[in-house]
Design a protein that fits this description.
2 helices; 134 residues
Length: 134
C-alpha cells in the first residue's frame, strides 16, 4: 500500500479513523461518548516503531536468504574440495606406482648393463683363449 510522500500522516489518519469506528461500534449512545483522547506523539512513536520493526524484519529476511545462499555455496565448495582431495590422492598413488615401476626398470637396466659388461669382458678372454687353442 503506497501512502505517498508522508506515510506517517496517512497512517495516523488511519489510526484515528479506526479508533472512531471502534468507539462508535462499542458505544450505542453517542451522547455518552467521551471526547477522544488522542496522544499524537505516542501514536507517531508507535508508527515509527512499527516501521522500524518492519525494516528489521525485511533485513532479517534478507540476511536469512544471504545466509542460506552462503551455506549452499559453502556446501558446494566443500564438495569440490573433497573431489579435489580425492583426485590428489589418486594422482599421488599413481605417481608412487610409476616411481616404483621406474625404479624397478632402472634396477633391471643396471643389472642388464652389468651382465653385458661381464659378457663383454669375457668375450675378449674367450677369443684370446680360443685363438691360442686353435
Amino acid at each position: 500500500m503506497d501512502y505517498g510522500s508522508q506515510p506517517q500522516y496517512w497512517l495516523l489518519f488511519d489510526r484515528v479513523v479506526q479508533q472512531l469506528v471502534l468507539q462508535s461500534e462499542s458505544q450505542g449512545d453517542l451522547d455518552a461518548v467521551a471526547p477522544l483522547e488522542i496522544n499524537v506523539r505516542e501514536i507517531l512513536q508507535e508508527l515509527a516503531k512499527e516501521e522500524e520493526l518492519a525494516q528489521i524484519q525485511r533485513r532479517s529476511e534478507e540476511l536469512e536468504k544471504e545466509n542460506s545462499e552462503l551455506a549452499s555455496s559453502l556446501a558446494k565448495k566443500d564438495q569440490e574440495l573433497e573431489a579435489k582431495a580425492q583426485e590428489k590422492e589418486d594422482l599421488e598413488s599413481n605417481l608412487e606406482r610409476t616411481k616404483e615401476k621406474l625404479e624397478l626398470e632402472l634396477a633391471r637396466a643396471n643389472e642388464a648393463r652389468q651382465r653385458l659388461g661381464e659378457i663383454e669382458s669375457q668375450l675378449p678372454e674367450s677369443s684370446s683363449s680360443t685363438s691360442i687353442t686353435i
